[in-house]
Amino acid sequence: MAPGQSIWVVDDDPELRRMVGTYLIDQGYDVRCLTDGAQLMARLAGARPDLLVLDLMLPGDNGLTLLRRLREAGDDLPVVMLTARGEAVDRIIGLEQGADDYLAKPFLPRELSARIEAVLRRRASLPAGTPLAEGERVAIGDQVLDLASRTLEQGGSVTLLTSGEFALLTAFVRHPHRSLSRERLVELARGPDSLTDSRSMDVQVSRLRRLVEPDPGRPRYLQTVWGYGYVFVPDGQPRSR
């Protein structure tokens, strides 16, 4: 953790804000607590945190609406989503909308801190604009993944990937034509000590397919290895059996 990294916590529960805020400050973070989406959007107009902890159930615009608004605007701000019930549907929808990680309430503050640290480590491992060796551009059909700028380019259109999307897509392109289990994808994209459920890879891959596949329902590049995981096929041809 870099000293003074900024974390914004958006939750309408004052007790949770106090508990989380106090703990994260003790961990060395610069913490700002907000109560709803209106406060969040107003603050974002003039400042930006290193990571956002965003509750799903908020008054007014809920967490999913706010997250979708950020992603549709091309904002790759790292987001850890909090869900009240911990139901699979909440987790799936949050990941589909571009959350970097999720945590079900109730939780221990140190568990949230571990999730935050993992997301920030992924982000710091290759920040946008980091110079890489020449040729670090990977063709995926008619799109190009630029590993230096963390973008997908298609014609004149450029899509900035979130830290989670970029980490997972990079894991694929670094291992072309190699079948990767869900557990291995978690290790490659999130780190060996990740607390992420390996089944969440299904949701993450589904999101990537919507970005890179001409027809996400019939994937050419991110193909399923039934009963095991996935394989990246750069040329879009059926993988060898």
Topology (elements, then pairings):
Blueprint: E1 6-10, H1 14-26, E2 30-34, H2 37-44, E3 51-55, H3 63-72, E4 79-83, H4 88-96, E5 101-104, H5 109-125, E6 137-140, E7 143-146, E8 151-154, E9 157-160, H6 163-173, E10 180-181, H7 182-190, H8 200-212, E11 222-225, E12 229-232
Parallel strand pairs: 1-2, 1-3, 3-4, 4-5
Antiparallel strand pairs: 6-7, 7-8, 8-9, 10-12, 11-12
Please provide a written account of the structure.
By secondary structure, the protein is of the alpha/beta class. Helix content is 37%, strand content 21%. It has eight helices and twelve strands. The strands form three sheets. It has a five-stranded parallel beta sheet, sandwiched between helices. A four-stranded antiparallel beta sheet has the order 6-7-8-9, with no helix packed on it. The termini are far apart. Residues 126-135 have low confidence and may be disordered.
